[in-house]
Amino acid sequence: MLEITGLCAGVDGKEILRGIDLSVGAGEVHAIMGPNGSGKSTLAGVLAGRPEFDVTSGSIQYQGQDLLEMEPEDRAREGIFLAFQYPVEIPGVNNAYLLKAALNEVRKHRGEEELDAMEFMALAKEQLEVLQMNADLLNRPVNDGFSGGEKKRNEIFQMAVLEPKLAILDETDSGLDIDALRIVSNGVNTLRSPERSTIVVTHYQRLLNYIVPDVVHVLSGGRIVKSGGKDIALELEAKGYGWIDGVTTEVSV
Amino acid sequence: MSTATETIEQLANQDYKYGFVTDVEADTIPKGLSEDVIRLISAKKEEPEWLLEWRLKAYRLWTSMTEPTWPNVEYDPIDYQAISYYSAPKKKPQLESMNEVDPEIRSTFEKLGIPLEEQKMLAGVAVDAVFDSVSVATTFREKLADIGVIFCPFSEAVREHPDLVRKYVGTVVPYSDNFFAALNSAVFSDGSFAYIPKGVKCPMELSTYFRINAASTGQFERTLIVADEGASVSYLEGCTAPMRDENQLHAAVVELVALDNATIKYSTVQNWYPGDKDGKGGIYNFVTKRGTAAGRNSTITWTQVETGSAITWKYPGCILQGDNSVGEFYSVAVTNNRQQADTGTKMVHIGKNTRSTIISKGISAGRGQNTYRGLVRMGKGATDARNYSQCDSLLIGDRCGAHTFPYLEVRNTSSQVEHEASTSKIGEDQIFYCRQRGLSTEDAVNMIVNGFCKEVFRELPMEFAVEAQKLLGVSLEGSVG
Ligand SMILES: Nc1ncnc2c1ncn2[C@@H]1O[C@H](COP(=O)(O)OP(=O)(O)OP(=O)(O)O)[C@@H](O)[C@H]1O
Ligand SMILES: [Mg+2]
Questions:
Q1: Predicted confidence band of residue B337 (pLDDT cuts 50, 70, 90)
Q2: What CATH fold (topology level) applies to the domain A2-243?
Q3: Which of B149, B232, B218 is nearest to B189 (CA)?
Q4: Among A98, B68, B353, B412, which residue has the least CB neighbours within 10 Å?
Q5: Which pTM does this prediction carry?
Q6: A25-50 tens-digit pLDDT
Q7: Which residues of chain A does B9 touch, with a Cβ-Cβ cutoff of 8 Å?
Q8: What is the spatial distance between Cα B382 and Cα B351, in angstroms, rounded to a whole number?
Q9: CA distance B121 to B209
Q10: At B1, is the pLDDT very low, low, confident or very high (cuts 50, 70, 90)?
Q11: What are the sequence ranges of the domains in chain A?
Q12: Which of residues 393-452 of B touch A (CB under 8 A)?
């Protein structure tokens, strides 16, 4: 599904990712943990094609394609979904309208019929129920005035509607109350299938009780310093990052 | 990979689809302005003496006036002697049927999406087509006449309905109003006239389509719409011009009169040639538009989508004279590349319990400069009057500008005025968010811009709202890479 080799990337000449190797197979769930500023969101951003990041070396293969050659919208249409750590507000643009346009772009790309407003609403309502989300969020401007938790739920709602092949969740659990955490995790688990893969960025082991990962990676200073089973997360929770060799915990600004 | 800021900065050529020239033999008078020229225009139109006298008075006043310098726009001085003040396609300017319209002109309007054959037209829209200085066709006239609605070229109204014209012309915008209004009053050539009789709800949209074609001419049209007691009408105007390297002047005057319980809704989609990306050429759109809500409970609504012109200078206003009368102004103004706009409204509250609403959406891209200028005046007698104003600016890129000048004059203690303003920028992160969901940059920008303008588009008649959205997309084409 995803094959990252020797990835180095930065912004404005500042190096952030310093040689990442990561392989995510179809159907797998990988968790990425690591101290603040270690480069987790940068990695997620590079995968999604955030224009401010420059990839200086390395390669990324996604479903046999050279991901770095693809425009962000093409990556999205090919099934990459990023649940943003900080979802952006877009005043004036209706949440349902954006999502319908997004879904139809994906469908067009796949050669499927576009959905009309009625069909879309039926689909959206179904997912709203699954995620126990308030239906009025649909008709509000994208993330505008949403609470922190509502924004995160909205990301998962969009993910559920778009049914991506590779979902990247960047700290979607931060800011969620306990119930929301369970609901959001359910949403992710429902999508779990042999063809779909998920990368979960989190600081908390708690989330991994709900979304059980196949592999946990620890990112530090722009490198993966440790990979292993889900028990790594438990150990981190108990001991902090200090026990892992090569972890830099001070945040560089 | 370049950043969104860079791509935002990459201003591609604006794709102006209406820039062609029609090859038609024209009767164009020599350049220059003098009393003789005014006499000539008046004679060509076989006008009555009173109108010639009125023109001459306007001209004499104009010669003593100076061009306003207070608008927040910059341009080289205009040489008023280098303009031809009258240009009309030759061959029968007065037509009995559409088949007599010069085929070249007919095809011009067809290319612009305005077929002049009634059977091809949008049902429910009557069109007056103005080509340079004259009206070349007005559709659905008989049908309208059956219910007493007069809709015809202004010059014809002068001949056929002199009493009505004489009673109202210059009452809302006197020739002494300002420099460009005086110029227009002196040299105006054509325009539309509409009269909706008592109690009639006009069953069709009335619309005028203005086309400048000839080079080195200006267009100086005059439109007058009167809605008698209890009448209502919705009127639309659209405009385009060829691409030329020189600037061309468009100085129009529009007057609206709404009597007791009457409603006039006036919508504009202005798409004059804006000039090229470096600011060469384009129309100077210096326009005076005003309506008098003269009667009790009357309503005047201005809705404008201004995407064209090198420079726009216009403040469609309402004189709220009748008690309980209502004035509304909904505006979207776009400036891309080197375009400049100084636009807004004047709401003059005179009657008791009058209300006004101002919603202005300014969009600046490229090096565009967009100014909102609005006056709200609550007169002594305007007790319990209310105004609500909202002025929002949206910036695309960081070389453009947005400016807001609200003027408030309150002369009584019971009226209330509320003003809100905001400035926002289309952020790279907003565009990226949309792209991450599968939308192209262009679609993302369109979606954000249309969302920003929603409250105004809502006010446009259906078919126009769709047009306006498309137009906005075209106007901003290339503003984001
Ligand atoms: N656009 C940018 N401009 C400058 N520096 C940046 C930019 N994006 C990220 N960085 C820097 O790169 C480093 C890694 O940031 P990143 O957001 O990837 O960390 P993170 O692991 O997601 O942290 P957190 O756990 O706090 O979310 C930080 O030092 C950050 O300041
Ligand atoms: Mg982060």
A1: confident
A2: Rossmann fold (3.40.50)
A3: B218
A4: B68
A5: 0.84
A6: 999 999 999 999 999 999 999 999 99
A7: none
A8: 5
A9: 13
A10: very low
A11: 2-243
A12: 424, 427-430, 432-441, 443, 447-448, 450-452
